[in-house]
## 1
Amino acid sequence: MIEKVKKAIYRHEGKRDYEFSSFYFVVHEILVDRWNKSNTPLHCLAHSLNPRYYSLSWLNEASIHQPPHQDNEISKERKNCLKRIFPNNEEFRAVQVEYAKFSGCLESFTDSDSISDRGKIDPKHWWLLYGSSTPLLQKLALKLLGQPSSSSCAERNWSTYPFVHSIKRNKMTPQRAEDLVFVHTNLRLLSRRSPTYKDGGSKMWDVGGDHHDSFEDVGVLEVANLSLDEPDMEAVIFTDDGLENEGNENIEVESH
């Protein structure tokens, strides 16, 4: 994914692969941070149960691609996760055998339709169609693959809550506050469908504030990255007025 992002950025900036891009440097740091945060046993298990990552189409996309059962780190974390989910030795052994059948295309998974559909249809649909012979694994896969892969959507959603339920409005009921958060979030999503979201002075206003209007706003992206882990930072844009206001930091709080 990082390579695809790099190609898109360098194509937009008209740069060659060996040239330095300050924008890509910041984006790369954000992607690496996200990866490190998501590199957990549960994520490794979900990755292992996605049939797409065993398909020839995905494996042939890049030379570094390999099926999850051949990756030592992923296999180790997957085993740890399965042991925690199935503490009973017999169940753990049974689900391990089911995974061996799935990853190795054995028994019922030798079906040509099952193999060809691994990289073509939605993972949940694939498990519903072809996973009946491995009930433990099928049930687990449907639970994991039906979950969002990132919590950033929830973090951004509830970072709005302190704005809605502030000191001045602390008398409103929790349900009322939740309703306002719901409305605010949906208005944000609707605004992304307007033409002005991609062009003009309010371009991508909810990424890092009204000051974000081009690929050159690297500093804003850094603050936007902080907002994923520190929701209170989302509404704060730090500005430096230079030598004229030396010693005085101007902090502008923007409520979107």
Note: Residues 152-253 form one domain.
## 2
Amino acid sequence: MTSFWITLVPFVALFVLLIPLRRPAYQAAPIAYALTVAIALFGWELTGGVLAASVANALIVFVELLLIVVFALLVLNVMIETGALDTVKTAIGGITSDLRVLAMLLAWGLVGFIEGIAGFGTPAVIAAPVLVYFGLKPLRAVAVCLIGNSTAVPFGAAGTPVVIGFAGLGVEPEVIADATLYAALVQAVASILITASITYVVTFDAGKGSFRAFLPFAVFAALAFSLPYLAVAYLVGPELPAIIGGIVALVLIAYAAKRGFLLPQHGDDLAMASGDDAAAGKPEPSPASGAIWRSFAPFIVMSLALVVSRTAPGVQTALQDVTLGFGTVAGIEIETFTPLYTPYFYLALALATALLVLPIDQGKLESAVTATYGKVRTAAVVLVFVIALTQLLLVSGTNPANLPSMPEVLGEGLADRFGDGFVVISAFVGALGSFMTGSATVSNLLFASLQQDTALALAQPVAIVLALQLIGAAVGNLISLSNIAMAAGAVGLDAREGEVIRLTLVPVVVICLTAGLAFAFW
């Protein structure tokens, strides 16, 4: 019992510092990490070798995540310096200039697609800076991209949270299939809340009229993603729902916007930031088709390469077999690099494409590098401490006191305290895992076995409890400090992580609680 309350201390401290006290994450994260180290050393009796192993793992994961942010920003800053992003904006302006529609395209359809092929916090890192460039405020751009990403997360990176996260449970494949379908069903229904939340954040300053007028289109956008997503989850499995849902949503949302389908007809649109010509009342000239193709080329190359790497079995295996290992420390295997499979490699391909096809000189390239460095400095501080905390939690089960790991103590403590009512809070356990680790897959690896054991002890259907774990692990990414830090760094949003959490916390609570109550009375 004591261990349960002690383990809560770093997370309570993190929450209090970020939310009520409004301290920046670059101050809150080191404090939370220091508390975790103290608890690990004195409560769990961790050795110096295990602590060193956690630091080594943290540095490797930190480098991988930082490279995602750096390469994504370099691509975008090169596109800004060369005018390619202006060309993209003008081309998209031919479909719509309404920021609400753009949010549906980028923070819903695009992030869902990128989550399906990449994961690892990549979607918000790519989409949020583009939305900012198009005129959305940085805080809102980060929030809507995180919110919009949550529906795709259960099937992110070609189904990794299910395929890897539920591996080793020893249950029948039919149970995993049922859990996958139940989670997809809840996420599909909740997608209407998600697109409504995106609309609310985008229209916050524009008044309730702008929000209400756009709701029919927001519902359409939700269905454009969730119906194919649900169908693919039922017919195919966990690998493709987010990819197919994202592609279909992008096509249908763009087509509907071009036709004005379900859009307000009273001129209350929220226009994207205009160029000099538009600001002067002149129509912006249409870019040549060659310029459009060159401007979109980095994204096209990256997307095609990612799709092939995730969906072609022979290619996928070959890329995953290229690894860089670092052995073990204190009996703990250190994280390995898979340099040809991780998302930063494909962002590097996008950067190489941009440098090849876009007209850039040394001065513009230096400006792009300087702008990138300026945005990632603070994010790097937050990331390194959050990841160090996460890795320490993951290795805390290796201790002379033979105590379970800290996350296991938290999960078991919650199960003990809620007893027969555990199903109601089951999704919150999954969300806790993602909040701590920034990964739905790791949350499932941490807590799926606990969820299974608790379901069997309470005579509850295992598939339902695993579905709740998957749902919670997905929406928990909305409040993951590592994901927030990556997206905030990409838009230069320093010291406002707590404000992002205040915007994203409500959907997390509503979806977890509603799903838990619904399945409790199944």
Note: Strands lie at 328-329, 332-333.
## 3
Amino acid sequence: MDPIQRFQRPPLTYDDALKTDSNIIHELQYDKATHKFYNDLWREKDTIAALVRHHLGLRERDACIVEPPKLWMRGAFNVCVPIWTGSDAASGRKLIMRCAMPHKLAEARYPGTVDEKMRCETATYVWMQERCPDIPIPQLYGFGFYNHRHVSLPSPPSPPSPSPVSQLLTCSCINWLSLVQFTHHTHRPWYIRIVHYFRHLLRDFLGYPTLLSHYVAHPSSLHFPSAYLLLEHVRSDTSRMLAVSFNQGREDSARRQNLFHGMARIMLSLARIPQPHIGSFRFHDDSTITLTNRPLVCTTMLLENDGTPRMMQKDDIYLSTESYVADMSAFHDQRLLSHPNAIFSESSCRGEMAIKMLIRGLAHHYIERQRRNGPFLLQMTDLHIGNIFVDDEWNITRLIDLEWMCALPAEMMEPPYWLTGRAIDGLKGEHLEEFKQVRDEFVGIFEEEERKGTAQHGISLTQIIRHTWDSGGVWFWYALTSINAMYSLFNQHMCPRFSSALLFRDEEVLSRFWAEGSAEIVKERLRAHGQYSDEVEKLFGRGQEKQEEIR
């Protein structure tokens, strides 16, 4: 069978499709939607240039060059379009327009999710600019949100599809949205800057609790197929993504320590100011930010986009750790009930059900009673080597992709699992011992940096980090926030603290208590997996091959 070609990705083989627990059918739909999104953006390159001039206050005759799609960068949720302003690369300014991909942000299933994600990300920039100026982040020049007033441009009609992702590809019109736009006040006329300055003074005098940003409303008549951020381009000859040199340089003690010092300072700076509840910051149209959004993390967005029913509504915040853990546990339950490739046999289904029941039952071992109602601390939940820029000595020069910062329980403060270059479920045996040694080195540096700081909560974060490792709580929190590693993390790290390895008969008994009618749930999940497998075979033409063999 021939592999399936993908947009800017290696071809997908049938064997690869069988090995993954991702929903390959959805992944291929996302791939088509991404290709379409690229084409839509490139057709609007003149609009992109106009938006840049709009936010920077440039004249129509000022050069603004949008680089071609082959030079664009893409992550899990955004496409980054490089742009030059000025007459040439040497004298000009390089920018990034970071455009959210609606088909990767559950927009078709839950309209308004793109807006939610972008408002949380923008609010994070504002908070860090105002409260954590020591953290090096890109300059944010301006941004635009959807205002959901559509301007419909005709396109050839096509038949409707029941799939939300397919609807993005086959809709009968292309919806270009007008935007709610904001620009940093330094790029606005002097009289607007004065008004904004006095607004700051008045709010400070009256003691308003909300934080007023330095961004002011700046509407235009432009329409664009994406919400966006206009950012400083941070890559240079002296600043490169950590991922480029991580595998070669992580054995270098001096580089590693420089990196750990920088990461520790970032974590401590964010956690310095205690927060009253669990949630994410949200940017409002009056230019203020408040901690009033649900805790928006990468895992939640990935699973919702893939079809897991939403458990946390946009305005849900949490006053206690228990309620947050309960909803996250229920969210993982919903993934098992909705994802057709989450299990592949009766034993795997029973095992997943049993572990989810045990995770919920063991939660009280890892929730610190004295801090169950706070204070909660700001944490970067997606701090990885692709989001950190460093110089040649691994001093951190920039931190990018700030979209998943939340106020969370202090027990969730933890060094990243990737410190030794392995996946979370690869930390076992000698690799676990290697990770422990590097983690201990990080914690020692973290303690050194914590002694220098002046946090406003009086909590020893170093002590908490050490306790979560000693108690095994680190694996509980990793499991709760992972996409699909809960089963392996429980069996590798949590189960041995309480029992010998669970046998199938143990899992079969325990799984009955996960939900009423567990036997029927298993049958339904196996039926869904069988149907999914048939659809994957059809994608690769395998079903036709089978029929020919029978003949």
Note: Residues 149-161, 169-174, 547-551 have pLDDT under 50 and may be disordered.
## 4
Amino acid sequence: MQSTKRVVITGLGALTPIGNNVQTFWENLVNGVSGVGEITRFDPAKFKTRFACEIKNYDPLNFFDKKEARRMDSFSQYGMIAVEEAIQDAKIDFDKVDVERIGVIFSSSIGGFETFEKGIKEYVQMHHNPRFSPFFVTRVLANSIAGNLSIKYGLRGVNYSPLTACASSNQGLIHAYNYIKWGKADIVVAGGSEAPITEACIGGFNTIHSLSTNNDNFANASRPYDKARDGFVMGEGAAALMVESLESAQKRGAKIYAEIVGGGETADAYHITRTHPDGRGAHLAMKEALREGNINPNEVDYINLHATSTPVGDISEITAITKTFTDQKALSVSATKSMTGHLLGAAGAIEAITTCLATHTDKIPPTINTTEVDEKVPDNIDLNLGKASNKTVNFALNNSFGFGGHCACIAMKKYEE
């Protein structure tokens, strides 16, 4: 049987509602800072939801020239920025590595929704005169971010964009792990990017009752596992992780944040938008990640929950956890969407960074805004309410679940030579 390679994380990059780089993001996350505010991208007065977690102080011309910016939708811009930070963090010199063995697996759930919406509006306003931008198609394509990244850096390895709704970037990270584990790549740029704060996107998610409508108290609207939770808060941004074989990382003398040891990808096979009430897909994903990582459930020190703050989804995940961790005396978890909002296809990547840094720093971020915990949450599950906690994190899981019943769980461990 072919021997497998150890897989590590050597670089991180992020552009989020609570920080435009990894350091600021992490500091704000552990300090319980919320990124929510009133929507500024458009006039939300007629919408049921009038708030979101937007990126602050962003000007594309601080990162791109006008020509570059015109060619890319916001989601693609965000991803390019996060990846550049991750590359700099990993200190990779592409002139000194084999670019034919470096891949890009970068996700987005809805791609260039902003561009699509703007183009259709202009088409209608111009009385159906089909004068579309020459960049319309390439800005809309969800895989344009992976293509743009490979072109910019000359990376000729595996290149694609998994599209499994809100599980997309966590699933992509698992794929990156697999490519390296089985010796098909040395380095993979993995992550996700999303720019969903548009009229059609907010209105569409309102129609299916996914978003919180707590406009009078939007600062506390994202409250996972609270009895009063009423839906998620939309977020935007991007996150990137440099996934690398241990052999390659050691050869470069790279710093190592954490090791990836397993991944689970499953399906609920139940409903297009609702998770199974028994959490069967989530349970199987966690079970498979633990099996592949050779991790006993009692060894898990932390789980970053998918936990979007929806009435059904939160309890489905908790049910899956209780089925997976049957003998656990105490389990530390946190729901960080309470601070970042839900970044859809980029959620798995930004929460993978969270899980990675929790393992690296032995610090568990808090769950904020939750004051009255749903009675269906068992007493042995510690949500880390209100403030971060210090705890040795040797093994950790990151959960992501998406419309269509897609379930992904990745397992990380503290790096040891």
Note: DSSP finds 13 helices and 15 strands in the chain.
